[in-house]
């Protein structure tokens, strides 16, 4: 079953939700990016607990099933998709916020899914980590960005998981060929 997001159009042809999102963007780019990215992840079904799924992406934690490019391409573009493309094209500065929001949602959704797979409540996980339930709730919130390595390691151990942080080089131009000394 595919899920899509369409902006509601009123009798006058207006799209009140789209108008509301534009106002948010003008006042708070970070909030706009987090809201849009969360809706996009839900729409694209990027995260599902894959308890009964044999197909898994080798780069994703075992509990997630990501849509393949072919699956994403087969989904019909909605006015929501067109809105995102247009906003990012008109306001390139939003791209950085959008990428930040993407990472925040990834962390929050992974923590929630793994905790649920382990049949733990936030309160039980908090006891295992040695913190409060409100701290676990904060970690599972896509708005939160104050993670520290020590806490994430404790949560990973409590969830019987491995914390994997990867640095990915940003390649803006074609890579220059590596120069080697002529005397070698």
Please outline what is shown here.
This protein has eight helices and no strands.
Keywords:
single chain, 184 residues, mainly alpha, 0% strand
Q: Can you describe this structure?
A:
- The protein is mainly alpha-helical and 184 residues long.
- The protein has one domain.
- Helix content is 51%, strand content 0%.
- The protein is built from eight helices and no strands.
- It has helices at residues 16-27, 29-43, 69-74, 79-90, 94-117, 122-129, 133-139, 149-158.
- Helix 1 packs across helix 2 (29-43), helix 6 (122-129) crosses helix 7 and helix 6 crosses helix 8 (149-158).
- It is elongated, with a radius of gyration of 20 Å.
If helices are DSSP runs of H or I spanning 4 or more residues, what is the number of helices? 8
> H/E order of the elements?
HHHHHHHH
Count all strands and give the number: 0
Determine the strand fraction and express it as a percent band.
Answer: under 5%
Largest sheet: none
Q: CA-to-CA gap between the ends?
A: 59 Å
Number of separate structural domains = 1
Q: Which value, in Å, is the CA radius of gyration? A: 20 Å
Helix % is 40-55%
Mean pLDDT level: 77
Low-confidence stretches: 48-65, 179-184
Shape: elongated
Class from secondary-structure proportions: mainly alpha
Give the helix/strand layout.
Blueprint: H1 16-27, H2 29-43, H3 69-74, H4 79-90, H5 94-117, H6 122-129, H7 133-139, H8 149-158
Helix pairs in contact: 1-2, 2-5, 6-7, 6-8
């Amino acid at each position: 079953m595919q899920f899509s997001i369409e902006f509601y159009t009123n009798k006058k042809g207006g799209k009140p939700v789209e108008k509301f999102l534009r106002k948010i963007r003008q006042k708070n780019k970070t909030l706009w990016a987090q809201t849009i990215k969360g809706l996009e992840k839900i729409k694209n079904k990027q995260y599902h607990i894959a308890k009964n799924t044999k197909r898994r992406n080798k780069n994703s934690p075992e509990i997630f099933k990501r849509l393949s490019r072919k699956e994403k391409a087969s989904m019909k573009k909605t006015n929501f998709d067109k809105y995102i493309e247009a906003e990012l094209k008109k306001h390139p500065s939003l791209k950085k916020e959008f990428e930040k929001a993407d990472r925040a949602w990834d962390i929050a959704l992974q923590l929630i899914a793994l905790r649920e797979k382990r049949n733990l409540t936030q309160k039980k996980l908090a006891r295992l980590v040695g913190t409060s339930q409100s701290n676990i709730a904060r970690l599972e919130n896509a708005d939160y960005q104050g993670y520290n390595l020590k806490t994430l390691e404790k949560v990973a151990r409590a969830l019987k998981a491995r914390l994997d942080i990867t640095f990915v080089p940003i390649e803006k131009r074609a890579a220059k060929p590596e120069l080697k000394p002529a005397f070698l």
